[in-house]
């Protein structure tokens, strides 16, 4: 097993390009005006995050997902949505991630997280788009998903997350895990691959490149290898229970 974690206290979290007066969030790459109509996060709309999941996922891909337990989709969102998620992930205030029991064990996971609620613009729209995907899983695979939860995560340099399944022993409320990646120009030397063991026991490595979504059965074992660059993502779970729904699945 890879040794994942070093000492969190010794690694300061650095935001690469902090959003501020000198670096406002730029959500519309084609717009150069600096008057009062300049883009702000409030101009984002749910429609910016609309994905036609039925068209993106063929029946064959859905079959593969059922058989192997995992699937990746690239180029998920348009540029506006991706930039908004990247901006929102970069300037929020990260807290230490806790394990399910509420106890932090920094030997196991080194990510710093922020749960997405309706107070987030981009993250909340993201969650609604994920719920449209969940509705497709309900219709086509009878997945029985009732709501989704998600958090932004940042792994500082030198950190990862050891082997685990997203359903701790004796639990099964998480049906499908989905992780969306936010990292531009992520290369093999940057580390931080997600390693998943599929339903046949085969290992796969998925690089956390921007605009990629990996979807996998929450019972599968997986780990995040040590990142050599700050690694940003949104970890998402589609759940079968009815607890604390941030966003309900309609269908
Ligand atoms: O960021 C990833 O690639 C996976 C994160 C993960 O496994 C988790 O948060 O449970
Ligand atoms: Fe996980």
TrEMBL record:
InterPro entries per the UniProt record, alphabetical: HIF_prolyl_hydroxylases, Oxoglu/Fe-dep_dioxygenase_dom, Pro_4_hyd_alph, Pro_4_hyd_alph_FE2OG_OXY
GO terms for MF: ferrous iron binding; L-ascorbic acid binding; peptidyl-proline dioxygenase activity
Single biological process term from Gene Ontology: cellular response to hypoxia
Domain Fe2OG dioxygenase positions: 146-240
Stretches the record annotates as Disordered: 19-38
Cofactor(s) the protein needs: L-ascorbate
SMART domains: P4Hc
Keyword annotations from UniProtKB, A to Z: Dioxygenase, Iron, Metal-binding, Oxidoreductase, Vitamin C
Pfam families cross-referenced by the UniProt entry: 2OG-FeII_Oxy_3
Protein name: SM-20-related protein
Species lineage: Bacteria, Pseudomonadati, Pseudomonadota, Gammaproteobacteria, Moraxellales
